[in-house]
Write a structure and sequence with these properties.
alpha+beta; 5 helices; about 15% strand; about 110 residues; 2 strands; about 55% helix; elongated; two-stranded antiparallel ribbon; Arc Repressor Mutant, subunit A
């Protein structure tokens, strides 16, 4: 399975967390809220497209809205392939973190 960049992982987790309300702005706000780091909103659109091409997420066009001048929102949904990629990342993270808590409690984390 292909490795994910940190931003791709954050996007996939945000899409999963947001469910039916996952579109560009809500994904961006979720990442900024959780990480506390500001980034350009446009910075998520290229990774979103990359994740669609990798088939980790599906893009679904919503209904046009007057608020957006007749433009439709593009919603995203996590695919089974995307969930598998996230679970593989989670497993790798856990393997790297394994044992570090014990070291930290012992004061030996340097």
């Amino acid at each position: 399975m292909a490795e994910l960049t940190k931003l791709e992982e954050q996007i996939l987790l945000s899409v999963w967390k947001l469910g039916d309300n996952a579109y560009g702005l809500t994904i961006y706000k979720t990442i900024v809220e959780i990480t506390g780091k500001k980034m350009a909103i446009g910075g998520i659109y290229y990774p979103l497209e990359r994740l669609v091409k990798k088939r980790f997420i599906d893009a679904i066009k919503g209904a046009p809205t007057a608020v957006r001048g007749g433009q439709a929102k593009r919603y995203y949904r996590l695919t089974t392939h995307g969930k598998e990629a996230l679970m593989a990342e989670k497993k790798a993270h856990e393997a790297f973190w394994s044992g570090l808590v014990k070291l930290q409690l012992g004061g030996n984390l340097s």
